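I am writing to request your help with a piece of structural work I have in hand. A protein sequence and the structure tokens that stand for its backbone fold form the material at issue. Please examine both parts with care and let me know of anything in them that strikes you as inconsistent. The record follows directly beneath this note.
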Amino acid sequence: MQSQDPSISQEPLISSAAPPSASDPIAPRRPAKNPNALKRLWPFVRQYKWAVAMAGVFLVLAAGATLAFPWALKTLIDQGLAKQEGRLHLAEHFLELFGVASALALFSAARFYTVSWLGERITADVRNTVYAHVLKQSAEFFETTQSGEILSRLTNDTTLVQTVVGSSLSMGLRNLVMGTGALIMLIWMNPLLMLQVLGLLILVVWPSMRMGRRVRSLSRASQDRVADASALASEVLNAIPVVQSYTAEDRESKRFTESTQFAFITAVNRTKARAVLVGFIIMATSAALLWGLYEGTLAVQAGTLSPGELGQTIVYVILLASSAAVLGEVYGDLLRAAGATERLMELLETRSSINSNPSSKEPVWPLSGSVVRIQNLCFKYPSRPNQWALKDLTGTAQSGQTIAIVGPSGAGKSTLFSLLLRFHDPLSGHIEMDGARINEISLNALRNRIGLVPQEPVVFSGTAMDNIRYGRIDATTEEVIEAAKAAFADEFIQALPNGYDTFLGERGVRLSGGQRQRIAIARAILKNPPLLLLDEATSALDAHSERVVQEALNTAMKNRTTFVIAHRLATVQQADCIWVFDQGRLCEQGSHTELLARGGLYAGLAKLQFNLNRSQETATTD
């Protein structure tokens, strides 16, 4: 559980409602029956046409050197061995063979480096593009997609793509060129024999493609199951204090074991199908090889073929058979990569329901706080289509005014914040900020005008300085420290082992809940926006810290418009105006005194809070 600063417990006036969520993953597509999905990588490949061209040249040269080796071997056998030439001539033939081998080594090394560089570069580009695209998705996307699923696609799937682009594809093309060259040479040397071998190879290719489709389908399923296990682990690790507090370690371990077992069974089925495919290819190509050797041996015995030509034929047949075998295996890799590419492209093709409008004219930056006008705002969450989150909401916040928003849980308070930030768009009605509708302002311009302090503060893995500077990345060290002092954070930060350069741990695990909240407040103060959204920004502070931070916030809120979701009576009383929400509607608004006099919903909530506080004070005294 999160540790917090010691505080005098106060029952909140209301409870903030958690945002709606759904568990539906990205809808999987039916797996393709061929590697055509790899064509969708072309936009990433064409940026490096020069590297592709160089790789192609080295590939052809390496294949050519391989094909030249049987010719040099034939010359050695027929002229160097059969004719029993002298040592000098024999050495010349071996030097020719060494020259071919050296050329093969040089061109293969160059091909390997170029193709590997290309694979790494394209994979990095794909990963960066997908990640940048995901960060721009709407809140609806993250409500329906597990973070572990996204991480699996960014890591496992891009690794598969890298393997194919940086290795398997090159190997496949090299063997295709080499096999084609060997086939041409064999047909030229012995057309009748090679037509028979070619017929056998065709009988190999067709079943291989059929079995390859099965491998492709199982590969996609295997990748999905691994992603499921990753999503489960990510969710549990992010909530490890809750898991341990409920002694659910064994239970979660069992869930993860079941998930990985399912992934294991799926992977075994894929491996089994691929093993059958590889075994079939090796057996069939071996049959073609032995048939060629048998016919060639008969030709030597009949005197129609020289020993050197037989050796040449043997090597060409071996090259042809091995190329066919490698191509079959590469085809399986291509099918796996096609599945990974599909999953990555699904993310890239996801379109945010919130569209920015960068071409619109941005309103003038206000000098004394934004003016916010809300007109007939209506909204339903996609996950709850039969329930209004907000209904006919109308209200105005003047420049520099503080609006406290109160009401029961689920009344629509946090929903209003989401609409102000355009995490969602309303079904009807609109919001104006400084005279412009927010859907006509670019998202960057809109959100740069807003500072948010959430109830659950976010602390990134980094130093205290980095976390506060996140509010304005170009801020100086002095400005960061000034914001920390305003948020009553400087004192505890200075007490850390390395002060502002202290690493705070993942999600700020080294800080208490109140300290994390003060970091978030300092971040918002440093941003210095004309509109502040405070979602119970002092809920995790003790009485003394809350009073000091509230004073700091009051100073920061001067000349700025502020919406504050308020749970505590002390915070509500200081607001210029109070909006009381109930079932998505603005049912009351006015000052604390005015609303108490009306005797409505607010008066009942305030009375409950007051009586509870008195009971707590009595219990403390006793």
About this structure: The beta strands are 372-379, 390-397, 402-406, 428-433, 436-437, 450-453, 531-535, 561-565, 577-582, 585-590.
